[in-house]
């Protein structure tokens, strides 16, 4: 798949064995790389770093292993990466290679965006979720007061997505990533949505051809949105479907308690209900909810989180402008719109959402 943005066009190689492309991508670079810094996390290193080395056979490489998950996206780890980069004499022509999930990708991308005012980087994603995060050029670390609050737009040179690495993903992570696949289908293509719903009845039972198909579709959909709107002045906001409430749940539950995708799934269910109520969306919400449940998703907001707190969080969302909470809603499946929703309407619907679940 080719991704076109106003700042750059780059390839995404997807498939089993895609990693074989990496060497020639690196050697084929117009402006040769001096050194390569591989940033990966403890879990990915344990499972795959050894084979990664063998598969790629790269020279002039040094590896930086950071803590797994959100713990990678801190100021401390960021600074530590910069220190290693300086100590290992990375220069402007060096390459940063991110090998891991969305967290490592966001961190490594931010290091690349800021080291010496920006050097090149390549994404080698290892989670389902990263079909989303590795494409599009948004890179960031977290601030104690908010997720992804410190970041940049920095497009990779290439994305090499070898599905072989996904084999070791625990079911919880499959579930987290698959929520973004569902999101891509809902905001863009009804047929894709029904194809998923009919085809995917269990996450651990997904076949390789199914994964290849939906990850490719997901990347294409995201790529299409990015091509129109790299810096999120318009349609890119549609990718936040399910995320306004989802982010609030993630933050309130404590990051890591509920995964990103699990929170987004609840957020999508809520947004679909809002869409039915406010825009008259024609959608079988019951079937959707049953499907989510059968895949192991929670469909209600975790106990102990108050609606008022969620509302406060939603107001702090980066997408909020002048305090108005903007939701991505659907007029039809595949037809998203951005709509400001009144606080009172939101509170009422959050209440209803909780009651319906009981
Ligand atoms: P992650 O990188 O934290 O990976 C999830 C967990 O799976 C981690 O513990 C990791 O060590 C482990 N893991 C990764 N690959 C594995 C493998 N092959 N086998 C076994 N375990 C493996 O998170 P994620 O779910 O990939 O991504 C979430 C992050 O992505 C969040 O920080 C989110 O903010 C970010 N994100 C960014 C964008 C973007 O556009 N930049 C979009 C969506 C999400
Ligand atoms: Zn997301």
TrEMBL record:
Q: Which pathway is it part of?
A: Metabolic intermediate biosynthesis; chorismate biosynthesis; chorismate from D-erythrose 4-phosphate and phosphoenolpyruvate: step 2/7
The record's function comment reads:
Catalyzes the conversion of 3-deoxy-D-arabino-heptulosonate 7-phosphate (DAHP) to dehydroquinate (DHQ).
Entry binding sites for Zn(2+): 180, 243, 260
Note the NCBIfam families from the entry. aroB
Show the catalytic activity.
7-phospho-2-dehydro-3-deoxy-D-arabino-heptonate = 3-dehydroquinate + phosphate
Which controlled-vocabulary keywords does the entry list? Amino-acid biosynthesis, Aromatic amino acid biosynthesis, Cobalt, Cytoplasm, Lyase, Metal-binding, NAD, Nucleotide-binding, Zinc
- Keyword check for Acyltransferase: no
Q: What is this protein called?
A: 3-dehydroquinate synthase
Q: Which residues form a coiled coil?
A: none
Ranges for the 3-dehydroquinate synthase C-terminal domain? 177-320
Similarity annotation: Belongs to the sugar phosphate cyclases superfamily. Dehydroquinate synthase family.
Q: What class of enzyme is it?
A: lyase
Query: Domain 3-dehydroquinate synthase N-terminal, which positions?
Result: 65-175
Q: Organism, per UniProt?
A: Mesobacillus jeotgali
Q: Does the keyword NAD apply?
A: yes
PANTHER family in the record: 3-DEHYDROQUINATE SYNTHASE, 3-DEHYDROQUINATE SYNTHASE, CHLOROPLASTIC
Q: Where in the cell is it found?
A: Cytoplasm
Judging by the UniProt lineage, the source's domain of life is: Bacteria
Q: Which GO terms describe its molecular function?
A: 3-dehydroquinate synthase activity
Binding of NAD(+): at which residues? 68-73, 102-106, 126-127, 138, 147
Q: What is its EC number?
A: 4.2.3.4
